[in-house]
Amino acid sequence: MLGVPLDEVIRRSTDNPAIQVKRPELDQIAVGAEADLAVLRLDRGRFGFVDVRRGRIEGGERLGCEVTVRTGRLVFDYNGRAGSPWPTAKIDYPTS
Question: Contact 80/93 with Cβ under 8 angstroms?
């Protein structure tokens, strides 16, 4: 969101959607919560952004997702951060 402070971007992408779908419990980290988390990275450089009308604008920062956890389970790991170092990784083949 061009020109919007990072803390406001996070609020707009967590609190607001949870309220809109009438599930305010989804925007909290608490005992008993579903543990839906995103670990984001702030990239700096030259980036192009396109809107719904195919209009393009350039920006100097963008957010990228490193890890996503849904209901306590890892569902996305962009850089393999949750993996074991290769020499010690175990092969775990399904039995069925």
Answer: no
**3-state secondary structure at position 64:** strand
pTM: 0.67
Residue with tokens 């849904």: 70
CA dist 27 and 17 (Å) reads 9
CA separation for the pair 82, 9 (Å, rounded): 26
pLDDT tens for residues 70-83? Answer: 888 899 999 998 88
Tokens of 17: 């959607």
Q: Could you tell me which of 39, 38, 40, 55 has the C-alpha nearest to residue 2?
A: 55
pLDDT tens track for 46-79: 999 999 999 999 999 899 999 998 888 899 999 9
How crowded is the C-beta side of 95, counted as CA atoms within 13 Å? 0
User: For residues 47 and 60, is the Cβ–Cβ distance under 8 A?
Assistant: yes
